[in-house]
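Task: complex structure prediction.
Instruction: return structure tokens for all chains below.
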Amino acid sequence: MRVVVDLNRCQGYAQCAFLAPDVFAMHGEEALLYDAEPDDARRTDVLRAVAACPVRAITVEGAGGRWTADRVGASNGA
Amino acid sequence: MALDGSLERLRREGHIVVVGASLAGLRAAETLREEGFTGTLTMIGDEPYEPYDRPPLSKQVLLGLVPVDQTALPRRRAIDARWRLGVAATALDMAAKRVALADDTSVEYDRLLIATGVRSRPWPNELEAGLDGVFVLRTTDDAARLVHRLRAGPRRVLVIGAGFTGSEIASVCRERELPVTVAERGPAPLVGALGGVIGEVAAELQHQHGVDLRCGVMVTGLDGDGAGRLRRAHFSDGDTLDVEVAVVALGATRNTEWLAGSGLAAGPRGIACDAGCRAFDVRGIVCDDVFVAGDVARSPHPLFGYQFLSLEHWGNAVAQAEVAAHNMISPGERRRPHLWTPYFWSAQFGVNIKSVGVPNMADQILVSQGSLSEHRFTAAYGYQGRVIAAVTFDQAKWLEFYQRQIERAAPFPLPFTTVDRRTEGMRPVPAGFPDPSVPSHGPEVTVSGHSPTDQRVTFTPA
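Output:
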């Protein structure tokens, strides 16, 4: 699955780091680092983190019925 | 309201070409589909990878916490596009509505979105830039090369330029316990973007974390050994330093060369467009079928005196792409202006730095909450008696409040009390920005006057 956090929105509430510690981690007191392509085994944790984020900064793809990436051709993709 | 026939046809069966397959290009493509565009969509990108996220490259990727090829951007929806990846656009023929590509093919469009972004400014001496051990950091390939070399444990890393990217790289080196020297031409790190007052705090952070920070000096040369490996750096103060790795972090240059001769108002400062993201041609007339979004765009902003702003910001790429895509398939009266208030973040030396507004337009600064010495504060920036920007160090939660002050042109200094106001926050002081006529790699926001065809800019390195 794929994750991106809008770090402009993020205010360092750290809910995600509590709920999915293998994917999200605080770096210092407020900065957030995260794994952008966590293992599917973390899906439940990540979805909890998405739901718990007070500023709704986390976008996920490939989880909870969201659409999965289409194929990308190397140079000539029809 | 009925759409006119040609727009209806465009939405149904037109061909939209997006040049630039990174954050802005992807979000624009998603918005086009979201808003009902059912025609053909072609995505052209010079890198052979599907759209990926760049901010992690100088942070978790360089730290080795996340694999370098695992920052692909999540998709908001299917975009059903024809992908032409690994092939750069080389020319634009606006009369024929055609984009030429590096593989000698071409693509015709009904509407074009240009989102070609920026690239790292290379070390100006080509021979020295080619030494084994000299790096830049912009793409996933750059990150792969650099992280590989950092893993090998070089005896010393030299970072040339202490803007945000350079400072983040230095921070990673210290976290990896690598000795690092930072050379900055200006008087302090981040000075071009945040000014001298905050620059002093950034310098303190670097010193505290064991960075050999050298401000007011330029790197004048890089030496290689017989095998072409970087060995030594020379400084403008006469000093020399043995280094195995040098990372050139002298800012970015806009990818507009392919538009030379196209008739678009494109130059080293970007492509001028109106607030609706329509590109200007060199006559200063907006094009109806060429749009611009992301780092490569510069567009007028009413909050900042209608000056043209270029914003190398993640959030701007997303917001401008959404507006551009909407406007590409909407009739005039439904078009929207791109009025995003600039926002960005940086994580370095364990501190979360965030900014809203345009700090480098400011003449004064006031530490309105917290304290500089604690490295935890909120600073408001003033320009001609109004609030124009704010920066937080580990106080992100206050930033939205300041955003609203900026958007309503609140007076500066702030006429009300703020939480945790200290004595140092009682009186504004000069913000300490360097002379803007001296070219700098620092600002990630460039304010470039009112002229859509302003192409005068020269860069003096380091």
